[in-house]
Design brief:
Layout: H1 3-16, E1 21-24, E2 39-43, H2 48-57, E3 62-65, H3 69-77, E4 81-86, E5 89-90, E6 112-116, H4 120-126, E7 132-136, H5 141-151, E8 155-159, H6 168-183, H7 192-204, H8 208-211, H9 216-223, H10 227-233, E9 243-246, E10 249-252
Parallel strand pairs: 1-8, 2-7, 2-8, 3-6, 4-6
Antiparallel strand pairs: 4-5, 9-10
Helix pairs in contact: 5-6, 6-7
């Protein structure tokens, strides 16, 4: 970070002692934002982090994220349930990829699942030096934001992107989280990436599907006839799960459920 930004940040923290929320638009830029990594929220809306939240909603006990297919194969040889995806498709030799619907399975309840994906699990590994790593998506937007606000620690919203390039859906999700944290008046922000993400979210929030119609990854998944996955992953607040890293595995953080007043 440049001296100007460091000076501004230090002055803001000295005046109010508020933590910061910032957005990193792709994992290859993570090293530029590590000073904010008390809590890192890894985001891969289409589809890894959406699938992870869904898996915990349906009772999975642990998810072990691995970056490489070879590591996933080692786990498979040891008898683990392994899900593997590359370029939007299930890797040959594995039963599941990273479709959320593949984890809506009562047989997975109480099980440990190993997961490797094109972008999301690699991003989790890149952030392994963070104070805490949690999983974010549109699915768990509100419950995650409530928890982050309660922590009162610096938050880095780390977008998985697509092969180290920016993508719209992760940036929009990061903007949605950033807006809630900033609107709480308990956080600061100084980075232009956070402003950009927030404005993208504000432009997209009335119609995610429409806004992302021409996005690269939506087109990629449409070609694979995964429209149901796209619609599901872009529908906010279907999940009450906050997955958090403990050791080498993700587990479901135990937090009080948010009661929907319309459902009683």
């Amino acid at each position: 970070m440049c001296d100007r930004h460091s000076s501004i940040r230090n002055k803001m923290r000295a005046i109010s002692n508020k933590p910061f929320v910032e957005v990193c638009i792709s994992p290859d830029k993570y090293h530029l934002y590590k000073e904010y990594n008390k809590i890192v929220v890894v985001i891969d809306v289409l589809r890894a982090t959406s699938a992870i939240c869904t898996a915990f909603d349906y009772g999975v006990d642990k998810i072990i994220p691995v970056a490489a297919i070879e590591e996933a194969l080692d786990y498979k040889a040891k008898g683990f349930i392994v899900a593997a995806e590359r370029n939007g498709e299930v890797v040959p030799g594995f039963d599941r990829g990273n479709s959320p619907f593949g984890f809506m399975d009562e047989e997975l309840a109480g099980q440990t699942v190993v997961l490797t994906t094109t972008n999301g699990t690699k991003t989790i590994k890149i952030a392994s030096d963070a104070g805490r790593i949690v999983i974010g998506s549109l699915l768990n937007l509100d419950v995650l934001c409530k928890w982050l606000i309660e922590q009162q620690e610096d938050v880095l919203l780390l977008c998985s992107g697509w092969q180290d390039k920016l993508n719209l859906e992760d940036t929009i999700c990061a903007g949605a989280i950033a807006e809630q944290l900033l609107d709480s008046l308990k956080f600061h922000s100084v980075e232009d990436s956070t402003i950009m993400a927030k404005y993208l979210y504000q432009s997209a929030k009335e119609n995610y599907l429409g806004f992302l119609k021409a996005s690269s990854h939506r087109r990629r998944l449409q070609k694979l006839n995964l429209n149901a996955d796209i619609k599901y992953c872009l529908t906010p607040n279907q999940s009450q799960s906050i997955p958090i890293m403990e050791g080498d595995a993700l587990v479901r953080l135990k937090v009080p459920e948010v009661v929907d007043p319309l459902k009683g």
